[in-house]
Amino acid sequence: MKTSEISGFYKLSPAERLALVKEYADLSEDEVKTLSAEGSLKLADANRMIENVVGTMPMPLGMAVNFRINDRDYLVPMALEEPSVVAAASNAAKMARAKGGFTATTTGPVMIGQIQVTHVPDPDGAAQTIMRNKENILEMCNAKDPVLVKFGGGAKDVECRIVQSMRGPMLIVHLLVDCRDAMGANAVNTMAEGVAPYLEELSGGKVYLRIISNLAVKRLARSTAVFDKESIGGPDVVEGILEAYAFAEADPYRCATHNKGVMNGIDAVVLATGNDFRAVEAGAHAYAAMGGRYHSLTTWEKNADGDLVGSIELPLAVGLIGGATASHPVAKANVRILGVKTAQELAEVMASVGLAQNFAALRALTTEGIQRGHMSLHARNIAIAAGAIDDEIDQVAALMASEKKVRMDRAKEILEQLRKRK
Questions:
Q1: Residue 159 confidence (pLDDT)
Q2: How far is the C-alpha of 394 from the C-alpha of 244, rounded, in Å?
Q3: Three-state SS string across 134-191, please?
Q4: Which residues make Cβ contacts (< 8 Å) with residue 23, sequence separation at least 6?
Q5: Over the chain, what is the mean pLDDT?
Q6: In what order do the strands lie in the sheet with 154-165?
Q7: What is the pLDDT of residue 422?
Q8: 313-338, pLDDT tens digit by residue?
Q9: Which among 22, 45, 82, 405 is annotated as catalytic?
Q10: What are residue 190's phi and psi, to 5 degrees?
């Protein structure tokens, strides 16, 4: 009987691990070669990045064009598998250029470290005691990362919150840490762990969790753009987008897909630059739900000229230092292509891409429908999955798209007919 209980798996080389996986899953030699194939990321490097490595999984990397942000042009690397996203972002950016492109800003690169203090005899009194000792706390935190402090970052402030939980009141201490050009998780977590014993002493309580929060409300990115009404299809298109936005704001079922479209663009840039897209996703959706109701990450309105005005605001905890951004060769090349110099500039680009992606989706939905552009590109994937090769791929995809029957069974039928003609 097969078992996934493999003692010492982590001690093996990638090749040895893959041999066990081959036996477990009865992989073919071709499948093994595919898994072990090396590209820009060598297996030896991948083996140092995560545990139990057996191979790498390449992701399509595209370049979004036409972006003009804060009076500067950008080529934007986007890594993802979904068809039409890069094309849609590029087209939206081109339309935004008519009115000057995107204007983006960020707040400071401040992350929140949380220390959970439980069983505190007097939570209010403990909070006051902690705030009276704030300077000592900050000094202890900054001693953990003098390099960050040297570059102008470090722990800057302390906040206390009393949270009512199913296990009683908890005193939650927030460390506000300026992380400069790093995402900051390692620095913040180290500070939170380092100061925890002192907080127990001050509060008389017991500390359990000491961890960064991905709801980075102190690290917001914003972008706005004006879309000329004639450039995007006329007043009816403007009205249609406003109706679509109103739908998203009123209905969480729609809003989830609306915000997913925003993140299509942002996540692709986050992934291309080696940043943590799970943290960004978690923060974005948590931010959208603040206030007790899930809402749109973007806003849309009409100005006095009848043009469409869009804006976006969300937490974007991304960095240029540390993690895969510094160790993945493709991520490093993508950062060079972007030409961004700070983490804040990177966040401004990402926010602008998210706004562009949302505009493109809303425009498509309110005009020809989302499937027209998406399915014509998706048809190529279906054709390949059906076994088409070389020029067969385009022929099968084109016919399926024209018929509006982008399905595996139809792809196989078309492919069989093409080959019979040969």
A1: 98
A2: 34
A3: HHHHHHHHHCCCHHHHHCCCEEEEEEEEEEEECCEEEEEEEEEEECCCECCHHHHHHH
A4: none
A5: 94
A6: 154-165, 168-178, 110-118, 206-213
A7: 75
A8: 999 999 999 889 989 999 999 999 99
A9: 82
A10: -65, -40
How do 110-118 and 206-213 pair as beta strands? antiparallel
Task: Give me the CATH topology for the region 110-213.
Answer: Alpha-Beta Plaits (3.30.70)
Q: Does residue 377 register a pLDDT over 70? A: no
Against a cut of 0.85, is the pTM above it?
A: yes
pLDDT of residue 31: 92
C-alpha 410/C-alpha 289 separation (Å) is 42
What are the tens digits of pLDDT across the range 50-77? 999 999 999 999 999 999 999 999 999 9
Q: Which residues, in sequence order, are bridge partners of residue 172?
A: 116, 161
pLDDT band per the 50, 70, 90 thresholds, residue 370 = low
The half-sphere exposure of 274 on its side-chain side, counting CA atoms within 13 A, is 23
Structure tokens at 214: 């991905």
Instruction: Report the candidate in 299, 314, 309, 301 with the shortest Cα–Cα distance to residue 248.
Output: 299
Q: Of 233, 226, 326, 223, nearest to 265 (Cα)?
A: 223
Cα(52)–Cα(173) distance, integer angstroms: 36
Q: How far apart are CA 165 and CA 158, in angstroms?
A: 22
| 305 among known catalytic residues | no
The phi and psi torsions of 373 (rounded to 5 degrees) equal: -75, -40
Nearest to 309 by CA among 119, 153, 96: 96
Domain 373-421 of CATH type 1.10.8? yes
Short-list 333, 216, 214, 318, CA closest to 276: 318
Annotated catalytic residue 260: yes
Q: Which of 22, 94, 156, 260 is catalytic?
A: 260
| Spatial distance between the Cα atoms of 17 and 34, rounded to a whole number of angstroms | 15
Confidence of residue 406 (pLDDT cuts 50, 70, 90): confident
Domain ranges of the chain: 9-49, 61-105+220-369, 110-213, 373-421
Q: What is the pLDDT of residue 229?
A: 97
Q: Going by CATH, does the domain composed of 61-105+220-369 fall within 3.90.770.10?
A: yes
Give the pLDDT score at 373. 56
CA-nearest of 300, 106, 308 to 222 is 106
Annotated catalytic, 2? Answer: no
Is residue 5 flagged as an active site residue? Answer: no
Residue 410's identity, in one-letter code, is R
**pLDDT for residue 127:** 98
Give the separation between CA 274 and CA 267, rounded to whole angstroms: 10
pLDDT tens for 8-57 read: 999 999 999 999 999 999 999 999 998 888 889 999 999 999 999 999 99
